[in-house]
Design brief:
Elements: E1 4-5, E2 10-11, E3 16-17, E4 22-23, E5 28-29, E6 34-35, E7 40-41, E8 46-47, E9 52-53, E10 58-61, E11 81-82, E12 87-88, E13 93-95, E14 99-100, E15 105-106, E16 111-112, E17 116-118, E18 123-124, E19 129-130, E20 134-136, E21 141-142, E22 147-148, E23 153-154, E24 159-160, E25 165-166, E26 186-187, E27 192-193, E28 198-199, E29 204-205, E30 210-211, E31 216-217, E32 225-228, E33 233-237
Parallel strand pairs: 1-4, 2-5, 3-6, 4-7, 5-8, 6-9, 7-10, 8-11, 9-12, 10-13, 11-14, 12-15, 13-16, 14-17, 15-18, 16-19, 17-20, 18-21, 19-22, 20-23, 21-24, 23-26, 24-27, 25-28, 26-29, 27-30, 28-31, 30-32
Antiparallel strand pairs: 32-33
Length: 250
């Protein structure tokens, strides 16, 4: 079988590795893992037990930097860590210095940038992008094509609908004053967004807040409130049956 497995890599018991996969120095892979074809696992990455990694996945990738980039790539980025029982779909890219918790599903074509912390039991849908310096809790759902901008924070039990867009730069890459104001979005636990919602930089969706489909959020969303429109305004309260406290076991 055409593979490259560095002699320093530690491979657990009952691990299956597909054709043309590359496992570099210092990698640690737990027991009962399934690794597909054409997978690249970069140096010193740590992968837990019973992890499924589909074809074409790259784990531990280092970021690129253009001469025009605002931030330069650090030279001391740590290896990626993938927790037990995670599933990574085809062509997923997980950058270095990512901490991925247990039992996460990361679907085909998703990208998770460097310096991301992802808790447990999240669903990261197809073609989702999670940018750098993002902290995410547990039991969240990020649906197809949603985009989480850098410097954001997401709590627990949040729902991000398809094509939700978030942003962190009110100056749109002009005026040096922007360097003092970069700030992503905050989604407190239980908050939700509808299809094609847009959240502007620095805005907070408070606990159990809801952003309706197509809404443009220019101000913070109050707790337990549905906002709609462009710009988004309070529409009504979230029904009791929809509150997080009444749905934790569902």
């Amino acid at each position: 079988m055409n593979q490259h497995i560095d002699s320093s890599a530690k491979i657990g018991k009952n691990v299956t590795i597909g054709f043309n996969s590359i496992i570099l120095e210092g990698v640690e892979i737990g027991d009962d893992c399934l690794i597909g074809h054409n997978v690249v696992i970069h140096a010193n990455t740590k992968i837990g037990n019973a992890v499924r990694i589909d074809d074409g996945v790259i784990i531990g990738k280092k970021p690129l930097s253009s001469p025009r980039s605002i931030f330069k790539v650090p030279t001391d980025l740590k290896p990626a860590v993938i927790g037990d029982y995670c599933q990574l779909g085809a062509n997923v890219v997980v950058y270095c210095q990512c901490e991925i918790g247990q039992r996460n599903l990361i679907a085909d074509l998703a990208t998770i940038r460097e310096n991301v912390v992802l808790g447990d039991l999240n669903i990261v849908g197809r073609n989702v992008t999670i940018e750098n310096f993002v902290k995410i809790g547990s039991r969240n759902k990020f649906e197809t094509n949603s985009y989480i901008t850098a410097y954001s924070e997401v709590g627990d039990y949040c729902f991000v609908a398809p094509c939700t867009a978030t942003s962190n730069d009110n100056y749109m890459a002009r005026d040096k004053e922007r360097f003092n104001h970069f700030k992503g979005v905050t989604m407190q636990s239980g908050s939700r967004t509808g299809v094609n919602a847009t959240i502007l930089p620095g805005k907070t969706i408070h606990t159990d807040g809801v952003v309706a489909a197509g809404a443009v959020v220019t101000k913070d969303v109050p707790a337990r409130t549905i906002v709609a429109g462009n710009p988004a305004r309070a529409f009504r309260e979230v029904p009791e049956t929809q509150l997080m406290e009444n749905n934790l076991d569902k």
